[in-house]
């Protein structure tokens, strides 16, 4: 379960990073490592491939840089929806506990 959650979270991070700047595989791996993910280029490539197949990322060759990944419009929509779900979860996790704040109705 933890691995699945981290995989979903890594997807959101990659979409966010790709929106901010066209990034190479190495740059994306480094950004994920900065946020505590234990990844390398070999583990990031399949994630990027999956995001491309889903239509969320596109890759282009840039002179002097190599292949970079860019967020597509469909990727922007997915990122927006993911942010909404994360925000909703955050609100639920930080909402006062209904049992301790509701009046006692015995």
UniProtKB/TrEMBL annotation:
Q: Where is the Transcription regulator PadR N-terminal domain?
A: 14-80
For this entry, the protein name equals Transcription regulator PadR N-terminal domain-containing protein
Q: Which Gene3D superfamilies match?
A: Winged helix-like DNA-binding domain superfamily/Winged helix DNA-binding domain
Organism the protein comes from: Cupriavidus yeoncheonensis
What is the residue range of the signal peptide feature? none
What SUPFAM superfamilies does UniProt report for this protein, alphabetically? Winged helix' DNA-binding domain (SSF46785)
Which Pfam family, an example, fits this chain? PadR
